[in-house]
TrEMBL record:
InterPro entries (alphabetical): Acid_phosphat_B-like, Acid_phosphatase_pln, APS1/VSP, HAD-like_sf, HAD_sf
Family: Belongs to the APS1/VSP family.
Signal peptide start and end residues: 1-21
Record-linked Gene3D superfamilies: HAD superfamily/HAD-like
Species this protein is from: Tagetes erecta (African marigold)
Name assigned to this protein: Acid phosphatase 1
UniProt GO MF annotations: acid phosphatase activity
Keyword line: Glycoprotein, Signal
Superkingdom of the organism of origin: Eukaryota
């Protein structure tokens, strides 16, 4: 319990530091970097987004107010799709060239759910594209409706992996009480035939998501699985030990899950 409180305090502090660090002159939309280089708001926000993807910027609680418009355009536009499809192409290339399947029922691949298989962009669109502090109750209400759309290129990869005879393991930071809604939503948009679906139980609530997901991998490996790859949209899905033979991260600058 004390550990949870400490964790929340750390997250809060990180949030305050991130938001006060943004020093943008909205009026003329131009500013300078520390070295004096004059840049546009777009330069600034693109750099913020890139450093989120590089995992240099961590634990942000909201997208900086001056960048929500830029992030919204990116996450709902063509570039995001192009970047994401390039990730999927690398997964396919790896599967076709470097993976030596044994086909003994122990070859496995891990997927995240949110913003890996199912899109939550429609929810965040209504909440200033990550500019509002996350309301877990509101997000879970939205998830309960089971209306999240499939990410089509991920569905293609999912079906390809299934066809290759690899066991599909879904590991999500969604909580256990969302199990029925999550299964309905997945089936409804075309995802079926997974081997297991891990959601966060009450025992996992005091762990970070990274610890919880590494724990699942540990269990899988102890059960003899070879985890060939992970596809996720958060660093917490792919960091920590044990890991997979390869990991692939989709872009997501709407929110950060530690
Ligand atoms: C969070 O969402 C719930 C459900 O939509 C709503 O009742 C509540 O007022 C929201 N809380 C805040 C702080 O906005």
């Amino acid at each position: 319990m004390a550990r949870c409180v400490l964790l929340l305090a750390t997250m809060f502090l990180a949030g305050v530091l991130t938001t006060t660090a943004a020093d943008w002159n909205i009026m003329n939309q131009r500013t300078r970097t520390k070295s004096g280089l004059q840049i546009t708001l777009k330069n600034y926000c693109e750099s913020w987004r890139m450093n989120v993807e590089l995992n240099n910027i961590r634990d942000f609680t909201v997208v900086p107010a001056e960048c929500t418009s830029y992030i919204g355009k990116y996450m709902s536009g063509t570039q995001f799709k192009v970047d994401s499809e390039a990730t999927i192409d690398e997964c396919t290339l790896y599967l076709n060239t470097l993976v030596d399947l044994k086909n003994d029922g122990k070859d496995a691949w891990i997927f995240d759910i949110d913003d890996t298989l199912l899109s939550t962009v429609a929810y965040y669109k209504k909440h200033d594209y990550g500019g509002e502090t996350l309301n877990v109750t509101g997000l879970e209400e939205w998830m309960t409706k089971g209306k999240a759309t499939a990410i089509d290129y991920s569905l293609n990869l999912y079906n390809y992996i299934k066809k290759r005879g690899i066991q599909i393991i879904l590991v999500s930071s969604r909580r256990e009480h969302l199990r029925a809604a999550t299964i309905d939503n997945l089936l409804d948009v075309g995802f079926y035939g997974w081997k297991s679906l891990y959601l966060r139980g009450v025992d996992d609530e005091c762990k970070t998501v990274q610890e919880y997901k590494a724990g699942v991998r540990s269990e899988l490996i102890n059960n003899g699985y070879r985890i060939w790859g992970i596809l996720g949209d958060q660093w917490s899905s792919i960091r920590g030990v044990p890991t997979a033979r390869r990991t692939f991260k989709l872009p997501n600058s709407l929110y950060y899950v530690a």
